[in-house]
């Protein structure tokens, strides 16, 4: 469902140098899988996901999302994905129900089909009891649930979630994680970025560890531990990051957009 080959996003500096926010990234994710991008701030996770969501245009490389070419068919990719980040907002004056109706209609849903889908998604994220309250009167956690509901209301085959639980308390974070797991179990392809080791280990089927715009390793948590000779994912992660820092060009260790 998602196949990335040598994707890079390069920025030119006023001084004439270059910054690689994403550097030769290759990865793949299939239907029914949660694929995690794990790395510190500035690792290149957000840049990579924004390229896959067609928000940014890669400098080089190729990718297909839901069978569509990233550079040749960006509009079809936008129809086939749900995108959410930790900073994705919701319209303050709309209610959750109005939000879902609005975005569902934008994707061509209408009539009874749209109404059934709205109610289904409200229940999926446990928002029904707040469905007619203006979004600006909701808690941060509830707004994030509405944002995730908005991302899936059109039933896309691929979800691109950029640190969707950032800033949420553990209870709300758990609700979001359970919903994401249920979506993957229903056959959705989920690309999920995080910098939280415990979260990556708990909900991701496979992981790509990133630093400095580069992919340092891909596999299950167990495979990464075995490859690094580590007792757990935490130890494997730090071994990979430390090794990358020893060999990386400091100019490449840049923050995401």
Instruction: Assign a percent range to the helix content.
Output: 25-40%
Structural class: alpha/beta
What fraction of residues sit in β-strands? 15-25%
Instruction: Return the CATH topology.
Output: Rossmann fold
Provide the domain count: 1
Widest β-sheet, arrangement of strands:
6-7-8-3-9-10
Give the CATH class: Alpha Beta
> What is the approximate shape?
globular
**Could you tell me the radius of gyration in angstroms?**
19 Å
Describe this protein with a few key phrases.
257 residues; Rossmann fold; 9 helices; globular; disordered C terminus
Write up what this structure looks like.
- By secondary structure, this protein is α/β, with parallel strands linked by helices.
- It has a single domain, classed as 3-Layer(aba) Sandwich (Rossmann fold), CATH 3.40.50.
- Helices cover 39% and strands 25% of the residues.
- The chain is built from 9 helices and 10 strands.
- It has helices at 45-52, 74-80, 96-106, 111-124, 140-152, 170-185, 197-203, 221-228, 233-247, and strands spanning 2-12, 18-29, 34-38, 60-65, 68-69, 81-85, 158-162, 189-194, 206-211, 214-219.
- The strands form 2 sheets. A 6-stranded mixed β-sheet has the order 6-7-8-3-9-10, sandwiched between helices.
- Helix 8 crosses helix 9.
- The longest helix is centred in the C-terminal third of the chain and has 16 residues, at 170-185.
- The chain is globular, with a radius of gyration of 19 Å.
- The protein starts with a strand and ends in a 10-residue tail after the last helix.
